[in-house]
Design goal:
Layout lengths: L6 H8 L3 H16 L15 E6 L5 H14 L5 E6 L2 H9 L5 H4 L5 E5 L4 E4 L4 E6 L13 E5 L7 H11 L7 E6 L5 H8 L5 E6 L10 H8 L5 H6 L19 E3 L16 E7 L11 E9 L7 E10 L3 H12 L14 E5 L3 H11 L4 E4 L6 H13 L3 E4 L10 H12 L7 H15 L18 H4 L10
Parallel strand pairs: 1-7, 1-8, 2-5, 2-6, 6-7, 9-15, 10-13, 12-15, 13-14
Antiparallel strand pairs: 3-4, 4-5, 10-11, 11-12
Helix pairs in contact: 10-11, 12-14
Amino acid sequence: MLDLLDAETAKEFMARPELDRLAHIKHLEWVAKAHPYQIPPDLEQDYTVWLLLAGRGAGKSHAGSHALWWWCWTHPNSRGLVLAPTSSDVKFTCFEGVSGLLANIPRELVVNYNKQDHVIELANGSTIRGISADSYERLRGPQFHFAWCDELAAFQYLQDAWDMMMFGLRLGERPRVIATTTPKPKDLILDLVGREGDDVVVDRASTYANMDNLAPSFAKQLEQYRGTKLFEQEVMGSLVDLEDGKVVNRSMFKLWPAFTTDGHPNPFPDFEFIVMSLDCAFSEKTHNDPTACTVWGVFKPLDAPMSVLLIDAWAEHLSFPDLKPRVIEEFYTSYGEGKKAKKPDLMVIEDKAAGISLIQELARAGLPCRAYNPGRADKMQRLQISAAIIAAGRVWLPESESRPNMVKSWAEGFLSQICSFPDSAHDDYVDTTTQVLRILKDMSWLDIDPPPLYDDDDDYADDYKPKRVNPYAA
C-alpha cells in the first residue's frame, strides 16, 4: 500500500506506531477497492447523517462497519454504537458477519470482544457497543460519538429507536450517524432524504453496482422480480410506494384516538371478545418468514356496528419449542383497564407448518384453540374477501400518542405489510388478519350484510315488509 503514497507521506506513515500502521493499511486497502458510494463523506464536512440507500447485496453493511470502526480508531477513547433491527442482526450481521466489524477491524486492534453484551474494545481506548432497535429503551443512559444504523427502514419501532439514539448522540464536537438501508417509504426515511443538502448526505446504489462480488446465479434470480415495485425497491435501491393501488389502503382503517377530547389518555374500549391470531413459520432461520401474532378486540363503538381493534402485533423467528411458551404467555395477557381487563377468548392458528403441532399441544393444555384452514383460496383471494370488512370501517388501529393521525410504532409494520401486499417482503400479518376477520364474520361479530331496504320509521315501510302469515291457517 505504500506505493499509493508520495515519499513524504510514506515516510510519515512508517514513523507511526505499529498498530496505527496496521489500521491505516487496512483502511487504504478498503478505499482502494471500495465503490465510491461506500466511502463516507469527510468528517470535516458539515453534516450529521450519512444515509446510504442501496439494493440488496450492494455492500451497505460492509460500508457501514468499516466507516464506524475507522472513525472510532481515528478518534481515540471514543464511543461507537451499532443499532440493528434485532439482537440477531447485531451479532450475526454487524459484529460477526462476513461484512461485519470483526471481519474489517485488524485483529491486533481488538483488545476484547464481549459476545454477550455486544461490545468491542479497541487498543486506542475506543469502544463499539451493539444494541437491538427492538430494545430501544436500552438507549436511555448510554452516550456516543458515532452511531451506525444498519437496515434502518426495517426497524419495527423506527421513530422511537431513532429518537432515543439521537438523544444519546451527544459526545464530541460533532456526533455523526451512518444509516445504511434498503429504502422504504417510511416517514423517517422520507424526512432524511428531504434533508439532503442540509444536515444529511445521501448516497445511492443498486445491487448491480456490486454484482462482481456476488454469486453469478444471484443475477438470474433477480430477473424474476424485474418489472415489479419490489424489484425497484430491493434491487435498484429506489424509494417507491409499494402501497399504491393495492387491495387495502391506509384510509380504510379507522384510528382509535390516543387521547380523549379533553386531552386525557384514551383507554381501550370494553372488549366483548378477544382473539389471538397466529401464522406459524416453518423454522426459526432468518431467511424464512417469521411467526406472526396479532391480537384483536371486538367492541361496539358509539353509533356504529360491532368492530374490531388491533391491540397487539409481533413477528419473530421462533421454532416450535420456543413458540409454545411464548404463545401461552401471550394468551394469559390481559387487555384493558382495571376490572374490565380481559384475556383472549380464542386462539386462531393456521393449520400448517409449526401451527399443526402448536394446535395439538394447546388443545392438550385445555386452551381454547381453533385451527384455520383456508381451503383452496390463495392469499390474495383471502385478502380481497376481508377487504370488504376493512373498507366498511369495521377495523380499527391504535393512534400514536406522539404522532397524531398515525398508528402506534408497533403497529406500523403491520399496516405497511398489509397495505403493500403482494409486494411486501413478508405476508405473515396478512395471514393473521384475513383468518381472524373471516372467523369473526362467520361467528357474526362482523356481519356486513346490507341492511333491509325498508326503515321501521318510514311511513311506507309496511308496503315493503313481508306479510306475516299463519302457516296453520286453513
